[in-house]
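@channel sequence for tomorrow's demo:
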Amino acid sequence: MCGALVGHYPAPQLHIGYAPRKLKRLVPAARNSGGPLSSSVRVLSLSLALTLLTCAGAAQSRATLDVSETLFSFVSAMNVCGYDSELRSSSAIRMEVRADLVVASESPATAFAAKEMCHFYQDHQVGDSAHDLAQYVSLALNLGAPPDFAPKVHEADMPPDSTFVLGFVPLVKTYYGAANLHAIWLKRKPEYLALIDRYHGPVAQMITSTDNYLRMPMSGYAGRSFTVFLEPMAAPGQVNSRNYLQDNYYVVVSPAENNLHMDAIRHTYLHFVLDPLVAKRATSLDRLKPVLIAVQKAPMAEDYKLDPGLLVIECLIRAIEARTPADPKLPEKDRLAMVQRDEAEGFVFTAFFYDQLKQFEKGDNGLQSAFPDWLHAIDVDHEKKLANEIAYAPQAAPEVMRAAKPGSQRVDLAERELASGNPAGAEKLAQEALESKQDPARAYFVLARVATLGGNMQGAQENFQKALAAAQDPRIEAWCHIYLGRILDLQDERDGAVAQYKAALNTGDISPDTRSAAERGIKQPYEPPGHKAEQH
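structure tokens (generated this afternoon):
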């Protein structure tokens, strides 16, 4: 009975990965010899090309618009197995490929391979379709080209959400061969390349205008890359951004008509450009830590409350976005409203950087030169006072790019062990995370789930309550309430259970799986599934 309190809280989506071959550079790279640019490179403008060619050193290509057969293969496999999210608003390419996959399934060998593959997929669904997509994107970005799909890094170095579905790789490999997926890729590849031609101009213009605003030197990009992958087999409303080893930044989007999520692409590009600014500035950042105390009740992700460097860069990026909105005619009052919304989520330095940028726009210095002075000019006592006076919002808007969580490694591993059927290992890692004060809400959540598997209802209830007390993430809060409601239902305390389900609906987590579970709990008492764990 107790072990049937099923569900899965997905790990964060920000992890490391690998980019397949590049097809088109958005900004041409200068050759060491100073010779002509490759004929395959689209020159954005004569003046820009001359600027790049005269920069000191051999600058690497900063940005690439690309497609990937590896991503195509894995997201197509998801479509075969029931990933139908946002079909009506998807690109026509998605429907065409799905029709090709139906024809391929007429082969008995393909049908058998699909059955095995989809059994794994259904057993490893983690909740809503966005989280399902995220883990397979994470996996695909860590793999090489078909038909081998060889991992590009050691398994121990892969992100936890990708290792959770690592067993999908041999199944996709078998399906890839049986369905002759490479032939379907070649058939549709011209349409994929047409997407690059269609969206190259707008993305290149965004990067050029952003670079012009920041006035950053080219030399800072050597050895680093920013890649936008177009994958129309995914839902057009879902964007996946990744930062890997601080050097490689990726955005995976599904274009549909004119919707390319340019705001998300630009946000990730700003991280690519600006994240290195906090390197070697530990002393300047440490003095900002008193401000972190004042933002502990803010709804933003826990990472920003622990690392002043992450908070500073995110605030700077949001200030830039307010100063340079998509509509250049946006009134000042509306720009300030954007800043106020950011501060209400906990990004308390946004107004400071917004004011600094006003002066920056009038000068000639680049942002890299200006940033150290801005960092030094932050009045910690003043900012802490302002932060204490802010009425924080009940929830934060979904993040474009989840901040890296080096301090949550043990919790990530604990979730992985639990998902792999090793509750003892998960419990040990979660306890270690608590001892080192790493992400206590998630650690207690893992311990609570371990307790349910062991039939320890009292331990589960206590740890869900501790997780709830420590939680800042609305999703964790919601599922703590749902699990507590189920425990109370099993103890025939219906009124208390209904109160928990209602509380789950008020946490701010709008995920369909959360709302469905809570509303189902309100309508009728929880009953453990008899023979198959229900999927969340």
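heads up for whoever presents: Confidence is low (pLDDT under 50) at residues 1-61, 403-407, 531-536.
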